[in-house]
Amino acid sequence: MVSQTPRLAVAGIEKGFPGIKALDGVSFDVRPGEVHGLLGENGAGKSTMLNVLSGVLKANAGEIRVDGQRLDLHRPGDARAAGIAMIHQELQHIPALTVAQNLYLGRPLKAAGGLLVARRAQEARAREILADLDPTIDPARPIHELKVAQQQIVEIARALLYEAKIIAMDEPTSSLTPSEFESLAALIERLRQEGVSIIYVSHKMDEVFRVCQRATILRDGRFIATVDLAETSEAEVVSRMVGRDIQHERHVSHATATPALRVESLGDGRMIRDASFTLHRGEVLGLAGLVGSGRTELLRLVAGIDRARSGRIQVNGQAHTFRSPREAIAAGIGLVPEERKKDGIVRDRSVASNIALPSMRRFSRMGLIRRRVLRQEATDLMQQMNLRPPNVDRAIGQFSGGNQQKAIIGRWLAADVDILLFDEPTRGIDIGAKSEIYDLIEKLAAQGKAILVVSSELPEILRLSDRVMVMREGQIAATLAGAEITEANIAAHAIPQSKRRGRSLAAEPA
Amino acid sequence: MSSKMTDTTDATTPARGLRSVLPASLSLRDAGTLLGLVLILIVFASLNPVFLTAPNLLNILQQSSINACIALGMTFVIISGGIDLSVGPTAALSAVAGAALMAAGVPVPLAILAALATGMACGLFNGTLIAFAGLQPFIVTLGGLSLYRALALIFTGGNPIFGIPQEFRAVINGDVLGVPVPVVIIGVIAALLWVVLNRSPFGEYILAVGGNQEAARIAGVPVARTKITVYVMSGGLASVAALILTGRLGAADPTMGNLWELDAIAAAAIGGASLMGGKGSVVGTLLGAVILGSLRNGLTLMNVQAFYQLLATGIIIILAMLIDRATRGRG
Hints:
Helix content of chain A is 33%, strand content 25%. Chain A contains 18 helices and 24 strands. In chain A, the strands form six sheets. A six-stranded mixed sheet of chain A has the order 6-9-10-3-11-12, with helices on both faces. In chain A, strand 7 (110-111) and strand 8 form a beta hairpin. The longest helix of chain A has 16 residues, at 178-193. Chain B has 14 helices and two strands, in the order αααααααββααααααα. Chain B has helices at residues 13-19, 28-47, 54-79, 87-103, 108-132, 137-156, 166-173, 181-199, 201-211, 213-218, 223-249, 260-270, 282-301, 306-328, and strands spanning 175-176, 179-180. The interface between A and B is large, with 58 and 32 residues.
């Protein structure tokens, strides 16, 4: 089965973004009929690698060969022409169009000399291809009526339609149930036997070990190793992904016994039900759970962004009903949102202005902003946090993600809130700034701030938290402390009862 | 995810070099608008000797003052991410309200206050629907455009109101040290608005709401209050323009202010306001209004037909936007 020429050979790929070296000399090869895992933490460079492979991003250096032929990728179309198909995590199709129309999107079968689309012929051909994959899918139905797993099969069908030799799947199981994963695994095995090569990106170890033969591990944009999965263990792979022993980085607890925030049976009437917990001064409380388990929604209720329908919130012993974030901020609660660009920054305004937004009253006198005072304080704050470049007059949109995050955190320090809610604090942040953010969170805890951290990255939760709450289907399923805080324990509580099947799936992908 | 990149585009270095020469209060974009105005002035001055005389320049400022007044309000609305199409009819409604009171013998200051209150009420109505009912600014103020015009027409039966007291007319048509009163009024208002936009918390709120409404809300900005206030300001400034015009004409016509909204948007846009929100400048808008005023004045002096004046206005607006796009990179 193993032939001399690899189906895909990637050599010395480099790709840099301003402030980040996303890929730094990555090389690996994929054999014909091989399922090859591409592994790494968030930010390791997996997605960038896929984007380079599919021609979305152009590499700064290195080469890609398919069956020994060197590729020159300029556009996404070039990769497809060379037989590389991409199945994105967010499936890319047009909901209102039929399955067949989506299959032929961009290059329809023509009739009447190219004036019309040969709809009937498209559907017939689509039916042929789908018969092999999932005969229950009707090509004439609008694609949005299908289940996500079926939509994914349509994507695979599209890859086959273009006679792809290499199919790259980015986190294909992020919205699949365990039984749907089983069908996908079976399908992948069949494609493999037919000689299709598959690149499987996931950070769920059990899946990778189940479907892949070999895997390439990336860390901080660098190639770490290509391993034969039959000859290694999950623990071995994880430690090479993370590059350190997680347990050794457990932080020192600064938790006190004084409650800062007490939430009692909070609910939003839709998703969040009966959420109760207490957050103490100096404590870092981790909030784990699958994507869609309600973690962000709970944070938004506590921060006053969405209105709670039931329950009580007490801050420093005082009861509150928040009708707006403004009221929550006045009570001493600040949120560092997950989607920085959408919910965090005002791009064209300076760092100083972004910092001052919640604290305008403090920074102004007689209706006018004291620019000099603001500038001085913002500069001092950002100096402590090592803002780069250290210029608070620059528009925040011109900074890297990590530096924007420092400004948003600085905003809440300037507002002197007691309680900080972090939603995925290191998403989209390069590895160097990441540890700065961790150190900062610990420093804030040491100063007596009460901190709640939502994260999909278990190492992050393990590194930061004194206690860990696990959410499942809108409810707090468990609160773990001390020795109970293990990856396995968190995973066990995170998986919905109905779907529980012993998969050690712990966190959802980025 | 590693592919989520952040743009760390450096501020271009030539801009920095130029930056150091300019006074701190004049942004690079405003300097560009000023340059455009100077070019237009040079062209007309070389074509017509009358153009660059003090009386004519004052005349241009006077002619631009009404549009400038409306455009300043429009600038605030546009920065907040909205648009106010109802300014013309708002002006008409407050003009007829004020004029009717004056004609009925109500003391002039009271009538002025009533006219201002009428305009601000129109703005409050717009703003409340936009901030609390979540309606689109374009549609709400389009409705307001018909609504306020209809109210003005119904109230007057379609006829102009005469009998504006001489004392009021004398003030509006007077001058301060040779500068026409309307120009002085707009100058004072513009100075106040500059301080509001650049030095007050409310100014930061407007820029934040227009730049990224959701982020502003999460950062504790009172979004609804900010939005309502800009529409009230726009309505109030429409009343000021209405009072100036009423004083100059000696009558309040319910059809006053037809298409004012378009001139105002043009002035704001030439001055650097982004219709996407989050950007705009008081100085720029003033310059934009004067550019449009100079253009009309210069072409009239040269006896160019009104049709061609319209053509020139259109070309200037589009040219300004193209230059804006090219120099700023993104709209």
